[in-house]
């Protein structure tokens, strides 16, 4: 006797009644048929009956329900044959392989990993619903890359042993480009002026990198806010964006964006008043007002005013102060008056400072820069100061601060510092071309955050036709808890300008070691001291300048005529002071940097000289994207105690680090016989450089251009310092934080030169970050 009890195809709703009713029976045996990959034990585990037990209709429904829920089977049937329970299953196919054809925009391994995360992977059970979801997600990814014409065709191929192969065939098509952006309704500003504010743009010579010619909803939203801010900052209080239309051509290759705006009238400010619980004297607030009566209304200045008031209250511990400006508009006079309402809220203190996002950098590296203390009153200025100090470390791309209230309290907050780490290892490669040196190469390997400790280690190699340097240095910026730094240096330098045209011939081989100690004397100020030992072997030649030969004689040259070798030992003590108030180390726009550094060769060394350097650099911000940098570099050196200043300690000028457009070290005193540069004991250099975004790059900060004017010269001992001796140059410079590292170009044109100056107009430098 053979009786079909339940069919999984008919009983898809599981709870439905069976097709054939049957009387309960005692199971004599259980047999499973149709399995290929699934273990029989898996099926047995889902059967609510064992041999010798009675099997009922309810148990049959339960068994089918459980086996379907595993997802392993496409069909399940239960039959009875002479009191033998027979379970017949049809397994779902397994995925044998997943292939991608025509995919170029994405990495195939990354796509497979993404599919695996949603359950679609090789060796797993095939689920068509998951396949459809994966196909839609892949299509969405192509749309986000601007490939609106992408076509995805998915093929499922049956294979032996109940397996399938999945093939994604993709025709990516061309990227849809923005062909036109139009603004309708503008009268006060030209359309071209407004479009220059946008990040989105039509195809240009640089959009292959920025991708700003590809439509993005997020970028368009940001551009609309930029447009709104542009009008509101120029008095157009009633400005409104009426509509935004984005259309794509039928071939899905071109995108057109049309904005309709209403500018409204331009308003001026008639009055600014304060109201509410002021806490502080009203005069304190008036000092913080940036937007003045009589000026054209500017939302930026109004925001700056309310922020300044909130920050001032934050310095007093009022972390949740509400400062809002209420406008009173007079449309007839086109004036607006503002009443700034102040609600200081409750004074709070900081419960805990939390650090997050630092996967490599140790917490202590960040915490030791904190100026806001746990358990102290909340101080917005100290928190901002802490953020600036963490940012200046140079270990992080972003430093964000949040101050959430502590749940269940009214007078406590936590301060959360969230950082995004950047690559702090640097492999720098440099190259330059000139008529004399031909090719100059330099390389350095440095790690500014060694093992996440904040310590710095640098190995540098510089080589050219005239010089070679090996240097190893280490710095621990927090040798003590008070911020005293300790560092050491080892170096071996060989310098032989005999093969160049700009510097008089001689050769030195120097080997030395030194130790450095730095002391912070303020938030922005530090002093440092150092002591180094140096041994230099000097070689002079028959065509060396007379000054070089005489110095060799004084130091006991191997030949009486001063042409030969001599080794000198020196003990060099150094001291310096530095102040740095720049807003950023990588992209400064405001603040200044000052540095005074002096070194002196002291007994028992064989040399006696002193050398001083002073540098002052100031940054002036202009608007949102422009900055002017002014730099001054002064140097002075002299021997003492009747000793001569070593000629290889002379100052030189010219080149990418001083006066661009001139050959390295070509400016200054010359040997009257060979007309080679011999350097001098006084140097003055000045630079003025105006930084601006690269045209076509939008707001991308990785591109930067500058126009510069350089000036400077070197005077020899005994020569009168005359500003008429200054050389001048001008030109353009370009920098790019490329994927392989910082890249810099410079094109300098001399404005004033002497006939014996050597020129070097084009220079570049390439670095790679790992």
TrEMBL record:
InterPro entries: Bac_surfAg_D15 (IPR000184), BamA/TamA_POTRA (IPR010827), D15-like (IPR039910), OM_assembly_BamA (IPR023707), POTRA (IPR034746). One of its GO terms (biological process) is protein insertion into membrane. PROSITE patterns: POTRA (PS51779). Its main location: membrane. Residues 1-21 form the signal peptide. Pfam families: Omp85, POTRA. It is found in: Cell outer membrane; Membrane. Residues 25-92, 93-173, 176-264, 267-345, 348-422 form the POTRA domain. The keyword Transmembrane applies. Keywords: Cell outer membrane, Membrane, Repeat, Signal, Transmembrane, Transmembrane beta strand. GO terms for cellular component: cell outer membrane. Part of the Bam complex. Belongs to the BamA family. Part of the outer membrane protein assembly complex, which is involved in assembly and insertion of beta-barrel proteins into the outer membrane. This is Outer membrane protein assembly factor BamA. It comes from Aromatoleum tolulyticum.
